[in-house]
Structure formats: structure tokens, C-alpha cells
Amino acid sequence: MADSVPILTWSDSESHETSNSEKLLPSLDEMIEQRLENFGWKMFLQSFVAALVLFFDSQQSFIGIYTDANPTWHCVNHTICSSDSDICKLPKSAWAWDSPSSNTIISYWGLECANSFTAGLPQSSFFMGSFIGGYILATLADSSLGRKNLIFLSSLTMSLASTAIVFSYSFWIYSALKFFSGFCRSSIAASIMVLLTEKVGTKWRFRVGIFAFSSFTLGFLSLPAIAYLNRDSSWKFLYLWTSVPAMFYSVFAYFFVTESPRWLLMQGREEEAMAILKGTAAEEGGEDLILSLLKVNHAKPESSILNLYSSITQLCAKTWAIKRMLVLMVLAFGIGMVYYGMPLGVGTLGFNIYLASTFNALLEVPSFIAIYFLENCRRRTSIFVFTAVSGICSILCVVAGNGLKGAKISLELASFFSGCTACNVLNIYILELFPTCVRSTTMSLVRQAIICGAIFGPFLASAGRKVDIFFYGVLGVIVMCCGLSVVCLPETKGSTLCDTMDQQENKESFDV
User: Fold this and answer.
1) CA–CA separation, 102 and 83 (whole Å)
2) Residues 6+ apart with CB under 8 A from 342
3) pTM for this structure?
4) Strand partners, 73
5) Domain ranges across the chain
6) pLDDT band for position 458 (50/70/90)?
7) What is the pLDDT of residue 279?
8) Average pLDDT for residues 53-59, to the nearest whole number?
9) Helix and strand tally (H, E) in the chain?
10) CATH fold of 28-71+112-511
């Protein structure tokens, strides 16, 4: 009788047990999530200080509402002048400005009869700088500089450029410096959203985004107060009051705020990442396991000048990622026109400019509060509904006309609120659609599409001073058409963040 052969040899048994034990081990992403699930007072302070950068970014984004405003005037010689007269057909001696001529750039450089393109050029130059800078600087947060360094370097240079604007001696120098200021701040919003969400666990992702939204809102809300206090002063003081504090903040925040541990791990800087994870961990231990999993899941990137733009290469290597980016950019373009265009066009409402802009800024508060309640809602449905409502209300502003100013401003506020909420949901949505290795790049690229929409806002606002349909009608149609593109994107509600393109692809294949 032949000797019996055991079903499992010792080596097979050991391999089987090892295989089972490996299955029980959590993944690298799960380990990082466990380390980041606690949101203590240290993380609260980190998030709060980091998000303050958007306070100053918001001020520079909307400062043109006041510095580039078309000031009011009154007749001096009533024999040849009346309130209905065309200022461009009157001699200079027949009228005068209601406020000092240095109050805005229009009266300061005598641009009251300039065409819509010239009047809207400075603010459009700012957004054009943001648009171009975003594409040039987009990948630096994913590669060499990292999230933190890019954010606070951008904030510092933006504030320096805004301070230099005070010394502008011509309209064209002013527009050029606005362009440079926009170029410097181009990556702030995208990078800060990525930094905040990568430093917390999944359940805190939406909530920590409220820090960013509220900071941007407070910056917007501070402008009417600062502008009102300086209503009888030169427009240059408005730049000083907003840019000088930003310089001091940038230096302080650079030394206080820590880098994203996810990005550090992707860059092979394990010791720095573990130091941050230890400071925010919900429980002690697990460092050795994370490091061992890291060696399996990630390879340390090679040091090369070509690596600066490696995230673009990774993004373009996947057909699904390119298609997803194109759809998001179409969607972002329409939302950007409403989000940045509406506040710049409050001067066309025939309403007090300080109150109108304050109302718009205040609406951002319920907008980001709404994000808290939308956390458990489907991303695609939320964006589709809010873009549709924004477009309809904008078109109704044209129908209301100047005869119903109360109804008109109510519809404008409803349109802006819907646009704000759609923009806030979109910012979270982008983070969930792409992995860590390209997240900052994709966020920046989509943000540039939002800025591209903002570029046309000042020109439309200038044209809308004469005919409403050139502003509200165009905005409404565009945001509704662009909002339809969201149906081409996948749903991400409740999903965890991935680190690599392959992980993202595999996770979505499994979900399907």
C-alpha cells in the first residue's frame, strides 16, 4: 500500500496561513484613514489657519467691484445738463463726480466714456492671469513643491503684486499688475482644498471643506465694509488694506501649517509623513505596518526635472481620465461665469452697490451650510438641480426688467446662491473623482475652467449696463447648458479617496 500523501505540505500550509493573514491586513488607504479619523483641536487649528488663505484670495478676486466701479455724477451746469444726459456728450465743465475723482480707476484715469472692453480689462486681466498661471503651476503641487509650499508662496507673491498696484501710474500698468496678481494666486483655491481634505478622514471631508468655503465667504463679506469705510478715499487704500495683512499671514502660516501626509508618502518622504500622522492619529501604533504597506504599494519617485509634470503624463495616459476632465471643465466654465460674474455685475441692478454686494456675500453663508446637509446627497443630482435653478433665475432677471427692482435683485440673489452651492459641491466632487497622484493637478485644471468663465464676466457686466440680456440672459443660458454635462460623470457619494490611477480605476470597476 502506497504511503499516504498529506493534502497540504508544511510549506503549503504555511503559505495558506500567510495568504489568509494578508487578507486580514488592512490596505494602505485603510491604515491612513484610521490614522486620520480623529479631528482634535490640533487639526482644527491647522485647518482653520490654512483655510484663512482663501480670506485674502477672495478679497483680491472681488476687489474690482469697488476699485473698477463706474461712479455716479451730478450736473453742475443745469442749462445744458440733466440727469438723463449722456455724460460723453457733455463738456467736462457741465458735470462733476459725486465722490473724489481718485475713488475708482474710472474717474481717476478718465475712463467714463471707454468701451466695454477697456472698462472690463483690468478685472479680466486678473482672471486671465489666474487662467494661464493655473495651467503653468497646476502640477507643482503634485510634484516638486507640494501643496503647502505652493499655497503660501502663491499667497505671498499675490499680496506683493497687489501692493505694487498702488504705485501704478497708468491704466495699462494697472492692468498688467492685475494680470500678475492673478497669475500668482492661480493655484491657491485648488491646492488648499486638496491639502485640507487629504489631512482628514473620509467622514470629515465635507465638513473640513466648510472651513475653506466660510473663509472665502468672510473675505468676500469683508470687502463691502472696507470699501464703505474708504468710500471717500483713493482706490489705492483698498489695495493696501487687503494686501499688507496678507503678507504677514503668508509668512506665519508657512511655519505653522503642515504638509499633506498623503502627498509626503507618495513622494517617498515616509519619516515626515509619519511625524504628521502621529500628531493626528486616533490611536498609537501601526507605523511599522504603514511603512511595510508603503513599500509594497508605492515606489519612491525618481528625481528628475521631467518629474515636475509627471502628473500630467499620468492623467493623459488614461482615456477615462481625459474624458472626465473635459466634461468637468465644461461644467466648471458655466458655474464660473455665474459665481464670479454675478458679483461683478451688481452695479447693473440699479441698487446700492454696497448693499447689493453685501447681500451676495451673505448668501455664501447658507450656501456652504447647505453643503453640510448635502453630504449624503448624490453629487450629480445636486449640481444638476442648482445649475438649472441658477440659469432659470438669471433669465427671469431679464424678464423682470428695471421696473421691478425688488423682484430683479431677489432673482439675482437666488441665481447667485444656486451658483455658489453648485460650485461648492463641484469642489468636493472633483476631489472624489481623481486619486492623490493627480488630485491637485486635476483640481487646478478644473479651477482654470471656472476662471475661464470668470474672464468673460467683467466684459458681460460692462455690456449689461446698457442691455440686461447681454448679461443675465447670456449667463442663464450658458450655465444651464453646461450643467447638463454632469450626467456624463460617475457618482461618488460615500466613496473613499484613492492614491494611484490604477487604484481609482480598479475601485470604480468593482463598484460597477
Assistant:
1) 22
2) 360, 412, 415, 416, 419, 475
3) 0.70
4) 97
5) 28-71+112-511
6) confident
7) 57
8) 93
9) 23, 2
10) Growth Hormone; Chain: A; (1.20.1250)
